[in-house]
Write a structure and sequence with these properties.
Layout lengths: L4 E4 L20 H17 L6 E8 L18 E4 L1 E4 L2 E3 L14 H11 L10 H9 L7 E5 L2 H10 L9 E9 L1 E2 L7 E2 L1 E3 L3 H8 L5 H16 L4 H11 L3 H10 L19 E4 L5 H5 L2 E5 L12 E5 L9 H5 L4 E8 L3 H13 L4 H4 L3 H10 L1
Parallel strand pairs: 10-11, 13-14
Antiparallel strand pairs: 1-3, 2-7, 4-5, 6-12, 7-14, 8-9, 11-12
Helix pairs in contact: 4-11, 6-8
Length: about 375
């Protein structure tokens, strides 16, 4: 299922950040460093550096069209931007299980991977670790890959030969608020590690069939529609955890976390969390893997929770402050060309810095291809 990214066409531009690198395209490691440095300088200038965690993502899909949305008289037109999967299927960076009508089969992917390759999961002790390993072996999951290393992200944007779509790549700088609703009764930390109880119950949904997942989200939405009151919050959470749908989720979560307490907050199904993964294998370690996860698929389509700025059509960059103060996760996208000459430059530069296919996928079978390039 696709989603639409709306960015207002406006003259409200912050001239303090103007990343004009090769017409906004990243054609070299030098271009990449300028982009990363400019974003960091901007955050520092706005006193936002301590409020956001910075991640990176690269993908070999950066096809888009420009259309105009219907607007009322006197309103500014809006661009519709995004990655084009199929002719009428718009989406932002989206977890693989939510692409190409796969979501009904999520629990099948989960259990078949474990059944067919039990040796890969021998020492795994929770659902999120299962998902993390599956994700790094191209099995569809509900998590979206990130990395702390911009060079790794650039490799995926420019050189990932396994990607389904071999067009122009996209390099994303992903800014995640450390805390949402800071100082309020419904404050929530959006940066987690993979021992987090919140992350574990969200990951547990992958093991459940589609009907149970729908029932959980329906129940969570019902409780969310009843406006939160500080003095009712604890009671509401207690009632929520006694519903049939959530008791089923608790049962699944306790298969690995036996002491898991019935304190699941319905609001957490509608947030997007960044998770710094344990380095469970050489791939995750070398890729410095992190990821985004949410309970409801709708979070990925909600521009109040997750938005994209497309730097290919915006010069200079939109006034980031307008996006950042709203507590949303923001991905800033830069195109990476796929012309052979540009690809060879990036390949050479990344190899000099130790980023190769064999370092990204550090299995013995990858070594032969790297040796051929020497």
């Amino acid at each position: 299922m696709g989603s639409t990214v709306y960015l207002s066409k406006t003259s409200n531009i912050d001239i303090n950040i103007n990343v004009n690198v090769n017409s906004q395209k990243i054609k070299s490691v030098g271009d990449l460093l300028i982009v990363v440095e400019e974003i960091e300088k901007y955050l520092k200038k706005k006193n936002l550096l301590d409020k956001y965690e910075v991640y990176y993502r690269g993908q070999k899909e950066y096809k888009y069209k420009r259309k105009y949305k219907e607007v009322k008289e006197g309103e500014m037109p809006e661009y519709i931007l995004g990655n084009l999967n199929e002719e009428k299927d718009w989406y932002k960076p989206l977890p693989s299980v939510f692409r190409d009508k796969r979501k009904d089969k999520e629990n099948m992917y989960y259990y078949e991977a474990i059944r067919r390759f039990p040796d890969r999961f021998m020492d795994i002790t929770n659902h999120i670790s299962y998902l993390s390993i599956m994700q790094h072996h191209q099995i569809p999951t509900r998590i979206l890959d990130l990395t702390r290393n911009p060079l790794v992200a650039l490799w995926f944007a420019a050189l990932d030969e396994d990607a389904k779509y071999q067009g122009e790549g996209a390099f994303f700088i992903v800014l995640v608020p450390k805390v949402k609703n800071e100082g309020k009764y419904n404050e929530v930390k959006l940066i987690k590690n993979d021992t987090s109880d919140t992350v574990e119950f969200l990951a547990s949904m992958a093991a459940m069939d589609e009907n149970h997942r729908k029932a959980i989200i329906k129940e969570a939405r019902r409780y969310m529609n009843d406006k939160d009151k500080t003095f009712l919050r604890e009671k509401k959470i207690e009632e929520f955890n006694k519903t049939e749908a959530i008791e089923y989720l608790l049962h699944e979560t306790r298969k690995y976390v036996h002491t898991f307490e019935p304190v699941i907050d319905p609001a957490h199904f509608f947030e997007l969390f960044a998770v710094d993964s344990n380095f469970l294998n050489a791939r995750i370690r070398n890729q410095q893997g992190s990821f985004l996860i949410a309970g409801s698929e709708d979070v990925w389509k909600d521009t109040e929770k997750f938005d994209v700025i497309d730097c290919k059509k915006i010069k200079p960059i939109y006034k980031l402050k307008l996006y950042l103060i709203s507590d949303k996760v923001l991905a800033i996208a830069f195109p990476v060309p796929n012309l052979e000459a540009d690809v060879q430059v990036l390949k050479k530069e990344l190899r000099m810095l130790g980023i190769t296919r064999a370092s990204i996928y550090p299995e013995l079978q990858q070594l032969g291809g790297e040796l051929e390039d020497i």
